[in-house]
Design brief:
By secondary structure, the chain is mostly beta strands. The protein has one domain: Sandwich (Immunoglobulin-like). Helices cover 13% and strands 39% of the residues. It is built from 1 helix and 10 strands. The strands form 2 sheets. A 6-stranded mixed β-sheet has the order 1-4-10-9-6-7, with no helix packed on it. A hairpin with a 2-residue loop joins β2 and β3. The protein starts with a helix and ends in a 20-residue tail after the last strand. The C terminus is likely disordered.
Length: 140
């Protein structure tokens, strides 16, 4: 009986981790944060999932010494800005929607690696990006 309980508990934990039900708090988690200030830290966007009101100007601040980009990964906008270490980039989101972002140097348009999502207005991020795996792909 104890063996079955242990196995059930182990399976529940693994499923929870894979679906993002356990953890997810703090930096890099799968929660959606209401903020217009996005950090670029350790080759990641922080937070990875943000929400702002329509008409908000979002500021990305590169806290790394390496350069990054703020590049659109979804068809509902067009942006590709290089941000040197210590620099900033801004964009004002005028329309509701979910906007996908990645860094051309450390991520991919498929939202693996250095990537993020921004929900604007009444839009909802259906599948927030989660924590990185050791291979660089995003769970979530």
């Amino acid at each position: 009986m104890k063996r079955r309980t242990l196995l059930t508990t182990a399976v529940t934990i693994v499923i929870g981790i894979l679906t993002g039900c356990i953890g997810g708090g703090g930096t890099g988690g799968s929660s959606v944060e209401e903020t217009a200030a996005i950090g670029m830290v350790d080759s990641q966007f922080d937070p990875r999932n943000a929400r702002v009101e329509t008409g908000t100007t979002v500021t990305w601040t590169n806290e790394d010494t390496a350069g990054h980009t703020v590049t659109s990964a979804s068809d509902n906008w067009d942006l590709d800005v290089s941000v040197e270490g210590g620099g900033e980039a801004t964009h004002t989101f005028e329309a509701s929607g979910v906007y996908d972002v990645y860094c051309r140097f450390h991520g991919s348009a498929d939202l693996s690696g250095m990537s993020m999502k921004i929900a604007v207005g009444d839009a909802t991020i259906e599948r927030p990006l989660g924590e990185e795996s050791s291979s660089g792909g995003a769970y979530g």
